[in-house]
């Protein structure tokens, strides 16, 4: 990118259209942070990979911390929006919980680099941003838990295991996907999501 280019535009994308600078920086950050780690990626590597100047980067992101937080926000915003839709949708609660559980796995696999970065580098965020991340995760957790509690109150889920434990166990399993899942394996995101959701629903079945 030359100094005379508009800071809001970047190089051409796959479809020939110009990709905005923030999007190019996020794409470069996602790839580099996942491949070599947040702390080992320099600002110069980021701007070189994105094909922009440091001035263009600092126009949108004041630091690498800003980019790391933006990577996390992108995935969390997507998953929170999806869960909110499942929670508000009509239909039996068991079907909606199963769909939400499968979707969490699917969206994590589809954005695996984001998940890897989060699992490995969240501690590198500033204290304020770590607190914001925990707050957002808690909101997701509480909404998912409320769906399980609804199923318990309707008698379709077992009531002898606290909903908080159910949600925490499931999220823990999903958060570890970045450590072992391989894109070239036998299962894609939707198939893996169905397996995970099936195990969750089997555990929720009244005894």
Could you give the topology of this structure?
Layout: H1 21-36, H2 43-50, H3 54-60, H4 64-88, H5 93-110, H6 112-121, H7 127-153, H8 163-175, H9 177-180, H10 189-204
So what's the overall shape? elongated
Class based on secondary structure composition and strand pairing: mainly alpha
Terminal residue distance: 63 Å
How many E strands? 0
Low-confidence stretches: 1-17
Q: What is the CATH class name of the largest domain?
A: Mainly Alpha
Mean pLDDT reading: 88
The portion of residues forming beta strands comes to under 5%
Largest sheet: none
Keywords: DNA-binding, Repressor, Transcription, Transcription regulation
Domain HTH tetR-type: 19-79
DNA-binding region: 42-61
Pfam families: TetR_C_24, TetR_N
Could you walk me through the main structural features you see in this protein, from its secondary elements to its overall organization?
There is one protein chain. The longest helix is centred in the C-terminal third of the chain and has 27 residues, at 127-153. Helix 1 (21-36) packs across helix 6, helix 5 (93-110) runs antiparallel to helix 10 and helix 7 crosses helix 8 (163-175). The chain contains ten helices and no strands. It has helices spanning 21-36, 43-50, 54-60, 64-88, 93-110, 112-121, 127-153, 163-175, 177-180, 189-204. With 207 residues, it is an all-alpha fold. The chain has two domains: 1-62, Orthogonal Bundle (Arc Repressor Mutant, subunit A); 65-204, Tetracycline Repressor, domain 2, CATH 1.10.357.10.
């Amino acid at each position: 990118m030359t100094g005379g280019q508009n800071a809001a535009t970047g190089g051409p994308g796959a479809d020939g259209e110009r990709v905005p600078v923030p999007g190019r920086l996020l794409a470069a950050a996602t790839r580099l942070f996942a491949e070599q780690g947040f702390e080992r990626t320099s600002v110069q590597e980021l701007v070189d990979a994105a094909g922009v100047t440091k001035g263009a980067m600092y126009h949108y992101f004041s630091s690498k911390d800003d980019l790391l937080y933006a990577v996390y926000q992108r995935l969390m915003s997507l998953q929170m929006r999806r869960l909110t839709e499942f929670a508000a949708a009509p239909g039996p609660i068991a079907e909606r919980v199963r769909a939400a559980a499968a979707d969490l796995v699917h969206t994590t696999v589809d954005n695996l680099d984001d998940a890897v970065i989060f699992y490995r580098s969240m501690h590198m965020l500033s204290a304020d941003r770590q607190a914001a991340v925990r707050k957002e995760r808690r909101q997701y957790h509480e909404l998912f838990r409320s769906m399980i509690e609804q199923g318990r109150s309707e008698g379709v889920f077992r009531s002898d295991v606290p909903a908080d434990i159910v949600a925490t166990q499931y999220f823990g399993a999903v958060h570890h996907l970045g450590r072992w899942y391989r894109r070239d394996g036998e299962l894609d995101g939707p198939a893996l999501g169905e397996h995970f959701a099936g195990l969750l629903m089997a555990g929720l079945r009244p005894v």
